[in-house]
Each structure stands twice: as C-alpha cells, then as structure tokens.
Prior knowledge:
Order of helices and strands: HEEHHEEEH
Radius of gyration: 17 Å
Strand order of the largest sheet: 2-1-5-4-3
Strand content: 15-25%
Amino acid sequence: MTEDRSIAARFPDGLDSLLDELVARVGGVRHAVVLLGDGATVSASRGLGRRDAEQLAAAASGLHGLAAGAARRQARGATRRWTRGAARRRARGAARQTVVETEAGRLFVAAAGEGSYLAVLGTADADPALIASETARLVERVEERLRARPRLPQTPAAPA
C-alpha cells in the first residue's frame, strides 16, 4: 500500500462515519465519497455499492481535473494581464470546488487535502447553498484529521 492510499488507515473511526453523518443530517444529500486524485475510492457513505462508489469517484476526479486545468489556464492568462504582485498571487489559485448540475441533481467535488477529494451527490430539489456549505465544513473536518494524524511509517522494502 502506498502512502497516498493509506489515508483511510489514519482514521480509527473511519471516514465512512463522517460521510454517513453528512448524508443523514443534510436533506437532499444522497451519497458522499472520499477519493484520491487518480479517482481511487477511499471511503463511501452507506447505501452506495462499491461499483457505484468507484464510478462516482472516477467521474468526480475527472470533472475536478477539468476544472483544475481551466483554473490553471485562467491563472496563466490573468498573470500575463496583471502586473501587480497581489493580483498575480490571487490568480494562481487552484480549483477548490467543482459543481455540476444535471436534471437528476448536483455533484459537488472539493479538495480535501493530502491529495484527496470529497464528492457529494445531491438531489435535484436540494438546496445547493446548504450542500456547498456542508461540503466545505466536512472538508475542514477531514483536513483537520489528516493534519492531526501521524504519518504511517514507510515499510522497508524486502531484500531482493
């Protein structure tokens, strides 16, 4: 197991309970997934099967990757136009949250630190502002826990 994939191991209570709490507490949230940048599923809320969780994670990773690429492109263009230092620093920001709206509902994807992301799937009639703010709150909790947990020691490679 690589260090990136050890994120779930650093949560003694597991990420699942945080995701289940979000789904139970916030009306209109159907499912939530924590994923890595490559789309690998780290954790999923109850009621979401493995295959569906993997598909949601892959879609979230791809969509957030597109948004991040657009943000980088926008930042490069903005830096060329702006010459003041403060404006240049603001332009370098990465995509923090991606929201995709469909007839079936909304998908919120937010960076959650340590190369991980949180994807929250809401219903079409859910309050998008509420889900966005609750997603941001959960991201803070995940980031706090990731910072508070000691890194797992690297396992030495077996002699050849």
